[in-house]
Write a structure and sequence with these properties.
7 strands
Length: 187
Amino acid sequence: MRLSLVLEGELPSSNAASSKDRQRLRRIFHRQLAQFWKDDKFAATLRSMQAREPSDFTRFEKIRGFHFVPLVVESLDLVCGLEIEFMRRQPPGALIGNGGDLDNRINTLFDALQMPQNENQIPKNDAPNPDEAPFFFCLLQNDGLISDFKITTKRLLEPGDPREFRLNINAEVRATVPSRFNFLFGS
């Protein structure tokens, strides 16, 4: 099963990113994943299966008032491959030394694609917005479920702030061990 996510704006390097930065990015992905859960035929089929026979997929993690629901979960033997098109305004080769290198920015991205792993990864005094209740959707239970990734960098030829990026992220979710709960993902 494939789905696409988009991120536009600043993507700080991992050593400069705060829990507030990561939560801001998580919120961007939540809005897109909430739409997936609402509209996608796959999600409708999965919800109907859950109504008949609840599985680990219906579980969520409660962390500091948020109810995080990841799509890719370990208990269902799911993994995720990522193809990332990283578009930036700097000329080729200028990404390093301009506010963080590529691998540190990708670490921040991976942190934002997963649900927080503990309370410290959510900013103090942060609470769910109305569109984040009852559930806050994430792609991954943890970033250890990323099985592979490919990154292509391109130059973004639109005027604007050179610190801002556009990322097109294609995620392929697949089962590692087929079961009646994950057959929709293929293998």
